[in-house]
Please model this.
Amino acid sequence: MSDFDVIIVGGGIAGASLGAEISGSRRTLIVEAEEFCGFHSTGRSAAFWLESYGGPKVALLSSASRPFLESPPADFADRGFLRTRGDLHLSREGWPELPPGIECRRVERPELERMLPGVRPNWRCALFEPACADIDVAALHSAYLSRFRKCGGEVATAMRLTSASHRDGRWVAELNDGSVLSAAVIVNAAGAWADDVAKACGVQPLGIEPMRRTMVQLRVGRSGLRDLPLVDDAAGNFYFKGESDSSIWLSPHDEIPSDPCDAAPEEIDIAIAIDRFEHVVDWPVERVERSWAGLRSFAPDRLPVYGFDRQRPGFFWCAGQGGFGIQTAPAAARLAAAVLLDEQPDAIVAHIDPAIFSPARFS
Model:
């Protein structure tokens, strides 16, 4: 039997970032069911940092993460992970509302036509959120895994936790290859599989629900799109951004309940995305270059869950990050690490009450 202080189930951005924060002081293992970490949601994200996304409580984590994403420590990465592009929140009537404190300005129709050439006449105005930025997800995830390993963390890929029981203050966990591990703490960072992992450990699920999100890359009859702002509907029916000079990434902003799986796009959802796009701008759609889907997982109140389970000692939730897990990863990992290690929180999250995200709120 191999002994660890902490076993983290899931090697996506949630597990990798938390692992990087604790592996220097705890012997830690990441158990990842796929051949490589980040295969599912993390590896399929069209991630952007958007402070207004997720509501005011999530914005606390997003805002606290921005300085790290922009200028990470030199021993973590040699460059930042953000590329600022701004965001246009479109509206057919009335001004969109953002959480208090978010920097933005109103854009009237004449300026909107300059910022988004070809916008249809029924889109009357927008709010421009200038700080919105693309995130280099692959580089960020890789940097966290690299830090995790440098600090002594171990990664076991193509390994799935099948069961675990709590005995004499420690967990005894069995993997799909028959190997047996022990640890003081199991961290549930399994994304869409979070409730399944809880059940395998004899822990009451929280109702973490996976939702399928569709993405489409379109070639369109318009050039100069690479630096286009992120464009979204204030009513939540689409978003798109420039990918190359004449292609965009588009989503119908769908959230379709799904079993945990290797998600794939459905033709009807691709068609809906294109139809919504064609009602926004007059750019001719030339072809679908590729499409994909990922699962976003939400707790019942749509806030992430960080903390120890109330009823089962040593079981730590790190789940329910929805669509904002990457943009909040630096702050969320430090907040979760402070709770897990029972230490004072890092300065960047000292102002955030961890009780906001505790699983105890569901008791």
Notes: Residues 56-70 form the longest helix (15 residues). The mean pLDDT is 95. The CA atoms of residues 103 and 306 lie 28 Å apart. The first strand starts at residue 2 and ends at 9.
